[in-house]
Amino acid sequence: MRIGFIGVGVMGRGMVANLLKRGHEVTVYTRTKAKAQEVLDAGARWADSPAQAASQAQAVITIVGYPKDVEQVYFGPQGVLEGAKPGAVLIDMTTTSPKLSQRIYQAAKAKGLAALDAPVSGGDAGARQGTLAIMVGGDRKAFDRMMPVFEAMGQNIRYEGGPGCGQHAKMANQIAIAGTLAGVCEALTYARKAGLDQSLLIDTIKTGAAGSWQLTGNGTKMVAGDYAPGFYIKHFIKDMKLAGEEGADRGLELPVLQTVLAMFQQLDQAGYGDEGTQALIRKYMD
Fold it and tell me: DSSP state, 269?
């Protein structure tokens, strides 16, 4: 399939690499061309704008940073909606506002295009390994048509419902992560204060009821003092804010989410926004 791919960052590089391995023709655009060099060397083609990347594509995938970036990529000059041809499917894999996803869906429909919101979970490791969880909203027919594309990038691929439902599923995912990640930090802090070997503790409890990806993935990084970003703190803050706003729209308080958000905002203000989410352990260090 001919695919336009916009946003070749920490996640995008692995996703493009896996699309190429499955034999798809991929044309990429990102704001800093040097960040795309790895996938260009692997066989991807370069476009000078989102519109150009979309112009010959049967599917257009976007995964950028913030809702304002999604707005620019789709609705701005030389944007996806300007370049995509009728019949193409637009797939936004950014974690963004469900309301924005619904807006893209309507704008795409007016131009004879299909649009899916398909945020992912699994971090940079999942992107490299092609094991992402992909949560998809939009029309079922478009979802079924794009399954070969999703299967190149992920393993747990679920149709969640109409436009925006993929984003709502991702909001729930991020809410679950927030509480679990804080729990891992507190467990490891307790273990350290009690004189336990933290690595041994992880190995001990990972197969029991406390087991989770946050424990084995991020917990191991915490113990090693490895704060390199698999998923940026600054992007998780964005996600938690979106989840909080959507919750408030539905009369929910979400106190655990708000507590964890406040801790991450303090880390961001202290200059740690470009570290990985495992750096939350810094809030528990002496």
Answer: I
User: Partners of 29 in the beta sheet?
Assistant: 6
Sequence-distant (6+) residues with CB within 8 A of 73 are 6, 7, 50, 62, 64, 79, 80
Look at the alpha carbons of 211, 169, 122, 149 in this order and tell me if their dihedral is positive or negative: positive
Rounded alpha-carbon distances, angstroms, from residue 178 to 13, 39, 126, 149, 274: 25, 32, 19, 29, 17
Q: SS3 sequence, 170-233?
A: HHHHHHHHHHHHHHHHHHHHHHHHCCCCHHHHHHHHCCCCCCCHHHHHHHHHHHHCCCCCCCEH
Query: Strands 154-161 and 25-29, how do they pair?
Result: unpaired
Q: What's the pTM? A: 0.94
Q: Two tokens at 196?
A: 């336990």
H or E element, residue 127: helix 123-129
Q: Can 170 be counted among the known catalytic residues?
A: yes
Tens digit of each residue's pLDDT (9 = 90 or more) over 124-168: 999 999 999 999 999 999 999 999 999 999 999 999 999 999 999
Which helix (H) or strand (E) segment holds residue 273: the answer is none
Rounded CA-CA distance 179/174 in Å is: 9
pLDDT (tens digit per residue) in 233-283: 999 999 999 999 999 999 999 999 999 999 999 999 999 999 999 999 999
Which pairing describes strands 2-6 and 25-29: parallel, antiparallel, or unpaired? parallel
Q: Which of 21, 170, 221, 241 is catalytic?
A: 170
Q: Which of 87, 101, 94 is nearest to 163 (CA)?
A: 101
Cα(211)–Cα(206) distance, rounded to whole angstroms? 4
Q: In the 8-state DSSP scheme, what is residue 84? A: P
Nearest to residue 92, comparing CAs of 77, 78, 75? 75
